[in-house]
Design a protein that fits this description.
Radius of gyration: 30 Å
Number of strands: 3
Shape: elongated
Strand content: under 5%
Order of helices and strands: HEHHEEHHHHHHHHHHH
Number of helices: 14
Helix content: 55-70%
Distance between the termini: 100 Å
Length: about 280
């Protein structure tokens, strides 16, 4: 009996961390929650774990990696009978389901990142031009161009959409992005070359967006496509303002609010006035 007790291993905290991959902070939390606690302490107050406790922590690490929450792990261990292999085997079905959900989420994130890369590649030159303009004007926006772009990219959900719908979303994002960018130009002269160029770019993007808008009845898209000159510019402007000022969920900001936050209060109204002046000049 005495030899058995002497041979019984006691694991230091640092050894448990290395063995299980669990952090010191996690071990402290598991102790606080009553999931697994140290079995003894040294005279200096350092935690020690016996083999049985370390075995439990190996199980904790396994199911944590699978995606189990702490409360679920505690419940699993409190009702567990048998060794590690038995505990794991009895919960394999649930573990596989959780891993499948994790894989689905990962696949969705990969799809999102690929789409964002595609959008960024498509608009990167326009973004760089915008950044260079702001640098040249020594402009300090409260919201960075990158932040604005990121918000625009994440504004709509697209996972599972077909390519036509994705193209429609790309057109929508390009339109909103360019509208937001235009806030930096509201103090320029309405008939200056840079404003005219940006206006043409802005209206071209919104025209493309409207023509590809599947929610718009075909006859209306056809009618819009036949418009010319001032009539088309005014129709495009009206749709642009409608989208920019549309109500959004509480945690989102519409284009009007984003523009005023980024470039200063009243920017959106200045932009509207400039667009109206442009229509008078160009139409």
């Amino acid at each position: 009996m005495g030899n058995a007790k002497e041979n019984k291993r006691e694991w230091k905290l640092s050894e448990v961390v290395q063995e299980t991959g669990l952090s010191r902070k996690a071990l402290q939390e598991y102790d606080r929650l009553g999931i697994v606690s140290p079995t003894s302490k040294t005279e200096g107050g350092y935690w020690l774990y016996d083999d049985k406790a370390v075995d439990k922590l190996r199980i904790v690490a396994t199911f944590r990696d699978v995606g189990y929450k702490r409360a679920e792990i505690k419940e699993l261990l409190s009702g567990a009978q048998g060794d590690n292999v038995q505990i794991i085997s009895e919960n394999l079905g649930t573990a596989i389901e959780k891993l499948q959900k994790q894989r689905d989420r990962i696949d969705s994130v990969i799809s999102l990142l690929k789409f964002e890369q595609d959008v960024f590649d498509r608009f990167s030159e326009k973004i760089r031009n915008q950044v260079e303009y702001l640098k040249a004007k020594n402009f300090r926006s409260k919201v960075s161009t990158a932040d604005s772009f990121s918000k625009a990219v994440n504004f709509m959900s697209f996972i599972g959409y077909d390519e036509n719908t994705r193209e429609e979303i790309r057109n929508a994002m390009e339109s909103v992005i360019l509208l937001h960018f235009f806030g930096a130009y509201v103090d320029e002269e309405p008939d200056s070359d840079i404003v005219k160029a940006k206006m043409r770019e802005l209206f071209d993007a919104w025209e493309q967006y409207i023509l590809g808008l599947s929610s718009l009845p075909a006859e209306q898209r056809e009618e819009y496509g036949k418009m010319q000159g001032k009539e088309k510019l005014e129709s495009t402007r009206d749709f642009m303002f409608l989208i920019a000022e549309a109500q959004t969920p509480e945690n989102m900001q519409n284009a009007k609010t984003q523009m005023d936050v980024a470039y200063g209060a009243g920017t959106y109204d200045k932009m509207k006035d400039m667009i109206n002046k442009y229509i008078e000049i160009a139409g």
